[in-house]
Amino acid sequence: MDVNVAITQMKEQRESYIKRFSEALAIPSVSALQQHKPDMHRMARWLAKQMEVMGLEHVELMPTPKNPIVYGDWLHAPGSPTVLVYGHYDVQPVDPLSEWISPPFEPAIRGDYIYARGASDMKGQIFAQLMAVEALLKTGGGLPVNLKYLIEGDEEVGSPPLQEFIRRHRDRLHCDAVLNCDSIIHAASMPSLVYALRGLAYFELEICGSPQDLHSGSFGGIIRNPIDVLCGVLAGMHDKKGRVTLPGFYDKVRTLSDEERAVLMEGPYNDEYYLKLSASRGLYGEEGYSSVERLAVRPCLDVNGIWGGYEGKGAKTVLPAKAGAKFSMRLVPDQELNALESQVRAYLEQAVPRECRWKLTLHSLGPGAVMERNSRYIQAAVEAQETVFGRKPFFRREGASVPVVGMMQEELGVDSVMLGFGLPDDGIHGPNEKQSLSLLFKGMETYLRYMDILGSNV
Amino acid sequence: MDVNVAITQMKEQRESYIKRFSEALAIPSVSALQQHKPDMHRMARWLAKQMEVMGLEHVELMPTPKNPIVYGDWLHAPGSPTVLVYGHYDVQPVDPLSEWISPPFEPAIRGDYIYARGASDMKGQIFAQLMAVEALLKTGGGLPVNLKYLIEGDEEVGSPPLQEFIRRHRDRLHCDAVLNCDSIIHAASMPSLVYALRGLAYFELEICGSPQDLHSGSFGGIIRNPIDVLCGVLAGMHDKKGRVTLPGFYDKVRTLSDEERAVLMEGPYNDEYYLKLSASRGLYGEEGYSSVERLAVRPCLDVNGIWGGYEGKGAKTVLPAKAGAKFSMRLVPDQELNALESQVRAYLEQAVPRECRWKLTLHSLGPGAVMERNSRYIQAAVEAQETVFGRKPFFRREGASVPVVGMMQEELGVDSVMLGFGLPDDGIHGPNEKQSLSLLFKGMETYLRYMDILGSNV
After folding, report:
1. Domains of chain A, earliest start first
2. Can you tell me the ipTM of this complex?
3. Tens digits of per-residue pLDDT, B175-195?
4. Are A363 and B235 within 8 A, CB to CB?
């Protein structure tokens, strides 16, 4: 196995790669829409075929209650680590279709970009990783590490079958680390590595007053208005310092060490950056913390949706029977997940006046994760990125949640290395999603070097 | 003209009246729906024909930018007062149609009730008034008062052409008082008279944060959430004592005299009554006032609708770009209508944080009204009800708004007598709207005696 030979060969096949990548992008594997069920299977079979052709073993479409999971492995590097490659082959719906410049499932190249739904999230990433493996296997020397693949088809709809699947196949999926390709870097010229993610708790709250809508003239002034109550309850979840008021919410929040704070401050993330990225008139958050801390080191709470009464045009003088909202918390270690719902209930007990009833539903609950930055698995990623991009990546903590990371910790006891090459402005989930082609090839090379470094460091 | 002869004759024609009333109820004069435009004209012509046949003069369908107004008059009682009879011939839409026991435009009699859309609101009231006039004219003695009719076809859609119409035809509509038949009594055995109505100011507020929806994980904790801001702003419009916090809101509110309070306390309206009527778990309102006062003597503010972010099933982790709400105030004399919007703006200036923008729209603004209880026009109504129902009506102030009352005060300088015979549980605006037939005939008799008393008291 010669890494440089493999990389040279890879670079010579640019057109052939783009052609094969376009095949994958042309399959409308939209997991959210029932009419695309046959396309989900087509996409899974396409992947399995690639994996078989390039020399992976035990390739299989493993059934789940939803879409099949594509499995494959290569386990001929005794003494080397075993890495479980995670990805997903499903994509988001394409609406608003009218805003696409070229059709979402007819990949089109404009400049350095290939435009198609799923190009960046994440067919591009999984394709780059597979091509890196193919290039190595073609050289005839095998792989420097053992690999297993878990490529699911339900990530964009919340991965309902995944945790149970991992639990049931714990032995087969046993590994030393996960390589999660569903990730991005800061900029094309500035690699970065996410080593922490926030968890998520998502609630729905309904406040009920009278059993029926009432006329706001005939009853206005004498009864509780569920919208008013809901507003008061939601507004009361924060104090004037931007802190969440739920009892015990911050009790177990892990304090940032000076060392970690220094690492985080190395990145290019400051107020100016976030102000521009959000296009807001100003930033706002918990008093006493920087934006970087507020976004990923500190937990937070946001209302995600609210409704009640009349939402149509003009005026309707209704005093509604009920009102509701969805709200969620982003969680950090070491908040106790199982205590959250009772914290909310304790708050509601005292915040909702006796004239109203309330109903709380927990939609989802997943832990945050902080990975060991100095592990060989993450350090190999640092080294690979540095070699390919010519500069050391900086570390960042991500404010959002990637539930599979927590599942892997929980079910398999391993950390994930977040290594992908999407860009923040790829337009994932929106119209005209794109993937930089030069970055796609840099990604292939990085994945290749990553395996090489990880195998060499044994 | 002999009142008792007229009343006796009226009572003998029960079946014939019901047949004629059913003709009116069978016309689907739904002003809100464009497909019923021809029915609006049919209904207007039906009314005009009745008026002509019974002997009214100058009967005319007067055009407006929306539906025609039916006019007619009888002006041969020199020295007697001139009363402008107000009503509307349009009705509410019928959905949910599936909940109607009999079709809404096929009048059906079950027990003492006739079921049809518009039976109570308000074809029944206007029919009763016309039949009273017909009975008097049939006796050959003419009428004891001068009458003019203004029956509009757009009340259920907010009467958009009405104020301009009244202003343009001020001379023709000149009168001493308005007899507004669009009203109800407390119970079949307990007559009541509304002598005051609250006004209405209806606003819409939008709070904008970032120009686009953001991911709540990637931005949660560092920017203002427009839903949170909206909730805080709306919740802050009331203090802990249930008082509206808008600066100057209560400044000009007229204090209730001891005499008027005593009059209001004669009615059957207490907390128990409102608790049952609203089916709420408890009443709530401005500290220091009774329910009767909170409902009609004091102004109030209610949120009528709220929206923002994700309202669908399940979870979406969105941090929305904007959120909005509709809210309205019920107004009482002598609040300054033109100061209200600036009160709201003054409040918003300090309540909305600088990171958000806001937009306020005023949808409608109409004054409240308190009529002179001791005027001959209202006292004649008291006397007529007492004669027909065998008990003195009690006075009440209505919490809701009837904009035409304010318009008549403003454009013609006259008070309105609210005299109608609907019941609070007639199901107006909902399925299975009904009108008590015995009350319809008591209504005819009351209208007849009302004219007689008003004419005699000259």
Report:
1. 3-197+369-456 (3.40.630.10), 199-253+299-366 (3.30.70.360)
2. 0.89
3. 999 999 999 999 999 999 999
4. no
